Amino acid sequence: MSSSATPAETTFDVIVIGAGAIGENVADRVVQGGLSAALVEAELVGGECSYWACMPSKALLRSGAVLRAAQKVGGAREAITGDIDVQAVLNRRNKTVNDYKDDSQAEWVDGAGITLVRGHARFTGVKTLSVTDAQGKVSELTARHAIVVSTGSAALLPEIPGLRDSAPWTSREATSATSIPARLAIMGGGVVGAEMATAYASLGSEVTVLSRSALLSNQEPFAGEMVRDSLVELGADVKIGVSATRVSRDGSGGEVTLTLDDGSELVVDELLVATGRVPNTGDLGLDTIGLDAHSWLAVDDTMLVAPGDNDALGGVWLYATGDVNHRALLTHQGKYQARAAGDVIVARALGKPLSTGPWGAHVATADHEAVPQVTFTDPEVASVGLTEAAATKAGYTVKAVEYNIGWVAGASVTADGYEGTAKMVVDEKRQVVLGVTFVGQDVAELLHSATIAVVGEVPLNRLWHAVPSYPTISEVWLRLLETYGRDASSH
């Protein structure tokens, strides 16, 4: 990590709090637009995704996925003579996160013409911040045009007696662990819980998942069902509808005992809590500008924090991008917001025309109904847009079709006995795709085609002319259209 330094200048056109992937993108767009920008970071440049979330979690998952993929192909299967090398996986994870050093990221910031200020930022008033560095030295910074909050989110710890005192893992500890616990309980059946259950079961842990509702409950129901079946096959115990009522740890680093609401007890070596997220806004001094501490920052589609009746927010100067605005808690969606926010800040500062209608250059329209997401379980879950239930709830006239991906020729050569499901949700009135879900091996790379279809609102009768290459798994697109029916898509 580079040492902290007081900036030679204390006034910038734009100040971005948080130098994660989202904050970096905001600052980069601002500088490319001709304004000056400072990035304030209290931890590592590159943020949560680079060191404790997206990248290390996928590194932990990848080796097991590759091994199982080889085991599903005759010829390769017979060549496998050993088990997964746990230490090699952890070493590869460490390489992925640059051994938790951010020198290369800081060099990129400098090369992009952005000023990096290390320390913890707090608002002191309109367009003003104090930044306290690791040595306790305080700097005062002022923004001419805008301050952007890109501080992300942190793990939510539910109010369960004894939980906080038991030193549970959050996603950070799970992705940065230096050894694999023999027994791991995971509280939560969302993306983090499902991915880490897959990773740790692959690495040899005896995994127990406690989920109050179905796994991946915001996805199509078959997605969570297929992931649950896969986890059970990996040796995990998946308890649906079961919660902990009390947690205790036997001394420092001892066993963790969970009392469950079905009357049983579960004893493990570590407990991972993955039950949701809270905004990283608690110590930003939001109260100095009339906002509540610990709150999500609601924004409009240009990422501007709406002033309402708050006089401090008048003048169009406070923005929030990424997790902290609670629109779509995904790195790629936050970077998309960052591009819109950076460009609109430049346009407003320089008096340029704004493009703020749906799908304009200065808005994040896709956040509402066109968000893509991959859950890197085994099988992978790749989805974009609305599920059938969400589309129906939103008032669309919906028709949905499913197809067994294993029936596609490309799937049969990808893996012996390939199992997977694809689903397409159609707006019957407009004859466009509202949502697509793929579950199966290697489906992540199918998702961008679906994203283009949803965002582009490509008519079904035109999609018939997008011919999938043979033999690839992408041929499932043709099969979905055939299942829907060409006559139905021609009206």
From TrEMBL:
Disulfide pairings: C49-C54
Family that this chain belongs to: Belongs to the class-I pyridine nucleotide-disulfide oxidoreductase family.
Protein name: Pyridine nucleotide-disulfide oxidoreductase
GO biological process, one term: 2-oxoglutarate metabolic process
InterPro entries xrefs: Class-I_Pyr_Nuc-Dis_Oxidored, FAD/NAD-bd_sf, FAD/NAD-binding_dom, FAD/NAD-linked_Rdtase_dimer_sf, Pyr_nuc-diS_OxRdtase, Pyr_nucl-diS_OxRdtase_dimer
Residues reported to bind NAD(+): G188, G189, G190, V191, V192, G193, A194, E195, G276
Domain FAD/NAD(P)-binding: 12-331
Necessary cofactors: FAD
Recorded GO MF terms: dihydrolipoyl dehydrogenase (NADH) activity; flavin adenine dinucleotide binding
Keywords noted in UniProt: FAD, Flavoprotein, NAD, Nucleotide-binding
Ranges of residues in domain Pyridine nucleotide-disulphide oxidoreductase dimerisation: 371-477
Domain of life, per lineage: Bacteria
Cofactor descriptive note: Binds 1 FAD per subunit.
Organism annotation: Subtercola boreus
Binding, FAD: K58, T151, G152, S153, D323
